[in-house]
Design goal:
By secondary structure, the chain is α+β, with helices and mostly antiparallel strands. It has one domain: Gcn5-related N-acetyltransferase (GNAT) (Aminopeptidase, 3-Layer(aba) Sandwich), CATH 3.40.630.30. A 7-stranded mixed beta sheet has the order 1-2-3-4-5-7-6, with helices on both faces. β3 and β4 form a beta hairpin. The protein is globular. The termini are far apart. About 30% of the residues are buried. The structure holds coenzyme A. The site of coenzyme A has 20 residues, from β4, α3 and α4.
């Protein structure tokens, strides 16, 4: 794992639910990876209504990444859908993306959901490897407006005991 010299360790990683006041932070994080921010206000509204969760990661107060997990509307029963996983370029390869994904899955489990899907571009080697290592498997091919990709899927097991859940056990992830 590459580590930024002098950077805070992952033990200082804090994961928390994003609220409407985090809009500028989310815009800045998305801009840092070249993504637009259309629909973000609606997304925060859906989070406030409990239809999805947006998890924000910060390291010693510096926002470093985010992920969204849809929990209800339009999804088959029992399924959550993860999207918009991103980590700011300077903070990659330190486990932040994996921790965000785990937090999204944890949120789905907490709502009684037993399956998680996500979409990924066929050429996104970094994300594909992260998801493979996290236990996601091919579900079906996908065609996005910008190119081909895949929908991946993971069956969520029961929540591991905090003691075995090393990283998340130390995280300050509480939704409500
Ligand atoms: C994909 C992304 C979220 C990964 O975040 P991250 O914090 O660097 O991920 P992690 O540190 O948890 O990586 C976990 C593992 O995934 C794999 N991985 C991550 N980045 C990789 C890369 N650039 N190349 C190859 N493998 C990579 C590695 O196996 C890594 O473990 P290691 O560092 O011990 O080798 C980040 O690169 C990103 O924000 N990319 C731009 C946005 C994006 O494409 N999001 C995904 C949308 S589907």
């Amino acid at each position: 794992m590459n580590v930024v010299a002098g950077a805070p360790s992952l033990e200082h990683l804090r994961l928390r639910p994003a609220g409407r006041a985090d809009l500028p932070t989310l815009v800045a994080l998305r801009r840092a990876v070249g993504w637009g921010s259309g629909g973000l206000e609606g997304s925060l509204g859906a989070a406030a209504a409990g239809r999805q969760a947006i998890v924000l990661a910060d390291l010693d107060g510096i926002p470093v990444g985010a992920v969204t997990v849809a929990l209800h509307a339009g999804l088959p029963p029992g399924r959550a859908h993860v999207s918009d996983l991103l980590v700011s370029p300077l903070w990659r390869r330190r486990g932040v993306g994996t921790a965000l994904l785990q937090a999204a899955e944890e949120e789905a489990r907490g709502r009684g959901l037993r399956e998680c899907t996500l979409d990924v571009d066929a050429g996104n080697a970094a994300a594909l490897e992260l998801y493979r290592r996290a236990g996601y498997v091919h579900y079906r091919p996908a065609q996005f407006p910008w190119g081909p990709g895949y929908t991946l899927r993971k069956v969520l097991g029961p929540a591991p005991p905090a003691a075995r859940f090393g990283l998340l056990g130390r995280l300050h992830w509480r939704l409500r």
